[in-house]
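User: Before I run my own analysis I want an independent prediction to cross-check against. Here's the chain; please return only the structure tokens and, at the end, one sentence I can use as a sanity check.
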Amino acid sequence: MAAGGLDERVLGRRWTVRLDGVGRGSVAVRVSCSRPSCAARLLPSAAAGREAAVEHLKAHLRAAAAPRAEAYCACKAEGCRGHVRPADRGERAEHWRCGGAVVLAVLGDREGRWWQALECCSRCAAATPGTKIVSTAAQVSAASGAVSRTAPAPARVRAAEGRPAGLPASAQFSHSATAPVPQPVSASASASGSTSGSAAGSGFGSGAAPASGSAPAPGPAPGPAASGDASVPGPGRRRPRRPKIAQRIIPYDLRPVVLRDELIELGDLFRAYQRRSEPDLALLADLHARKARAFIAWADATCDTGLRLDAQRAEQAATAARLQHQHRTGVSSEDPSGVTRLLTGAAQWEHARSVLAHVTDSTPLPGPEARLLVVMLTLRAAHSGTGNLVGQDLNSLGLSDPEQLMAELIDCGWLSIPGTVDDLVVSRPENPTPVTVPSLTPQPDAPGPFVFGKKMRPKLSGWAQRVISDKKLRKSKAPADVRLLALTLATRISANGRLGSSGEGVALDFLASACAVDRDELPCLIERLTAADWLAEAVVTETHLTGRLTERVLPLTCPLPTVAAPADDD
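Assistant: Structure tokens:
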């Protein structure tokens, strides 16, 4: 029968079970069914409502008659997107045509708010996402009267396992007027079968269907359904999966065997990594490094140039993953301490050192207090030459006379503000004072002195503020020179916390210049840092300060790059 011959068919059955909220302020839900004979139920929670809705639809499915051969798609009656209404057929070159056996299908939404069972053709069921087939209509051969099963529908539609005899002759949709010739099976085999199906995706069970009755009504669950027809052959045997890595098939005869085993294991590890919920860049870098070594050995065994190129790309991927891991965690491959630092990555550490070096060379006023104030102002205006300042920023530095220092910086032209210094001192965070440092303002022919971007500037400013406002430094009322020394030493350590790139210490002349003090004043400053639990094992020699920073302040440090030791000349 042609798909368009709806006058000789009846509308397919359809019923819907819904889950709706009762009202605002209540967690109770209402379970309702589209069948007029089914009364709505109130459940105390959504979980209980979903369980009741699923059981209700299961009862409908157990009591429902098998799909009727003379039915056409229930979804076609409401003009679903698969079916084209006559008035809209001119909008598409070819309209949807039904096909396949009549089936009883179940579908539901992803949120678990409604479930629907309907009669439709197998083609519509296959085209509807999330649809599960409960049962499929059988057909009767007109010549012999023997029950025969329809051919399998598309891959998503599963045929049922039998139905009692006595159904109408044809349950097959087709684009042509001639229905396909069914393959007969024995009457005894068909009589022993039972209508069954599953809707595992929606949590529905299966059960035997009665031979008659068209109005499904929920009732008590019957016993387990009879097993399917044993004469129906099972699915064909699948070919064993061939191991792969990076879209390359690993040859079964690859030698040595240990190389083949390594490639298979790496392929499995990469696929397992892709299924992880959270990335692990250190693990990914190790996998890429192993892949590079394995592909080099594979290339040597097969003389394949492409494998060698893949090995080079794997090495580059391993390097990139390690660098990303260092930037995210602040822990380099040379850092055995595993410290999580406030500034993460060697690039940020170099930016911090560049700011301190610039301040050392360009501070317009002498003395450690002016130096510390210039450090803070430079970090506020480093990117564009302008920034915001409030009175609390000045008071947190521990300066003896911050108003006088600000006035001197303005008088010498290094700094400019729109109002007066008194207005700045009393300003609050909700109304900050804009400040401008002309020497930091980029010009068309002269870019600024720093190369970092606007997102890096607040990170550096926050880091410096954390160092100079350390809790123990504030409690001890450390002066500006002590805080400058702490800031300088935080950028002159090795990865394990020793002073100097390799633990050799920091030159005293460098420290005196960075802190704007005389060299003779350094021992007193070092003692105060030791008392504040910043320094440990400090030793002052004639030229250097050696020792280490305490573990308490390691998260605030910026390690120096490791310098390779020079080779001895023979």
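Sanity check: The CA atoms of residues 512 and 519 lie 5 Å apart.
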